[in-house]
Amino acid sequence: MSELTRSRIQLEYDQMSRNTAEPIDPYKFAVYKIMGRCELNKRTLPHITSSTEDWLWLQLCLVRESATSSVKSGGDYRLADLQKVLQKYGPEHFDPHRANPWNYMILLLLTLQFEEVVHQLYSSKYQIEAVHLAIGFASHGMLRTTLDTKQQESL
């Protein structure tokens, strides 16, 4: 997107967020936030991200991995930042009653944290599932093993 378009989106976003007299369409607000990458320090929209899935969708929309994203889009929010947020929250946040540990596992999978999925499952009563997933991940090159780490350090 051109810098002119992004600055126009930013201007309208700022006007919407300051104008409390008129009701704001929360979905329009979300589109402006995502397209213009506005206020990346505030990564939630409580009126439309009421579920974990909606919250994760917004987070994944805001993630950018290109080297020029921070220069051109007014902020830097990478997948590694989102992964740290999920690890900081931990499984207790997404499954407070410990009724379904798979909720947290799915979030970890969707954010490419394969090693953490295996670790979390193995640390709970799902050790067999952890081993099966680890075998599948490793066979497809998705799991960093000890050998991989040593090879990376030698490079």
Give an overview of the whole structure.
This protein is mainly alpha-helical. The protein has two domains: 1-77, no CATH class; 100-155, no CATH class. It is built from nine helices and no strands. Helix 5 (79-94) runs antiparallel to helix 6 and helix 6 runs antiparallel to helix 7 (114-123). The protein is elongated, with a radius of gyration of 19 Å. InterPro entries: Nucleoporin_int_Nup93/Nic96. It is found in: Nucleus envelope; Nucleus, Nuclear pore complex. It comes from Umbelopsis vinacea.
Task: Please give the count of helices.
Answer: 9
Number of strands: 0
Secondary structural class: mainly alpha
Strand fraction band? under 5%
Q: Give the termini separation.
A: 37 Å
Poorly predicted runs: none
Oligomer: single chain
Question: What is the radius of gyration computed over CA atoms, rounded to a whole number of angstroms?
Answer: 19 Å
Give the overall silhouette.
Answer: elongated
Q: What's the structural domain tally?
A: 2
List the secondary-structure elements in sequence, H or E: HHHHHHHHH
**Mean pLDDT score, rounded?**
86
Largest sheet: none
Estimated helix fraction? 55-70%
Can you describe this structure in just a few lines?
It is found in: Nucleus envelope; Nucleus, Nuclear pore complex. The protein is mostly helical and 155 residues long.
Key traits:
2 domains; 9 helices; elongated
